[in-house]
Amino acid sequence: MGESIKLWRCQTCNRLLRERPVSYAMERHAEMVKAEAGAAADFVREATWAAYLASLRRCRCGSRKRFREVKAGALRGQLDLGIEAVVLQ
Ligand SMILES: [Zn+2]
Asked: 57 and 88 in contact (C-beta within 8 Å)?
């Protein structure tokens, strides 16, 4: 609680995206690599981090249009952790 939630909408596919900090991307990436690469995790993490972060800076549909900010108040009650992440910093 207390954490402010910033939401954006992709103007191409209308997908809702939740803004997350780079630290969130780092944690998710490290978990993903650990699960997939095991002993080679350190190497794979360094090799794939830039591409992973870049993938979180745009919508999954591949759109390069700017995101439109969504007022979180209008969506109260619909927020859940299933909203896809976007890193805009
Ligand atoms: Zn999209």
From this structure: yes
Rounded to the nearest 10 degrees, what angle do helices 22-37 and 41-56 cross at?
Answer: 140
Confidence of residue 1 (pLDDT cuts 50, 70, 90): very low
Domain containing 66 equals: 7-86
- The rounded distance, in Å, linking the Cα atoms of 17 and 28 is 16
Residue 26 domain-assigned (yes or no): yes
**Token duo for residue 43:** 């190497």
Asked, for residue 30, whether it belongs to a domain, the answer is yes
- Residue 63 CA to ligand 1 centre (angstroms): 5
The token pair that represents 5 in the structure block: 């939630």
Give how many domains the chain has, as a whole number: 1
Q: Average pLDDT of 59-76?
A: 83
**Protein residues placing their CB within 5 Å of the ion ligand 1:** 10, 12-13, 15, 59, 61, 63
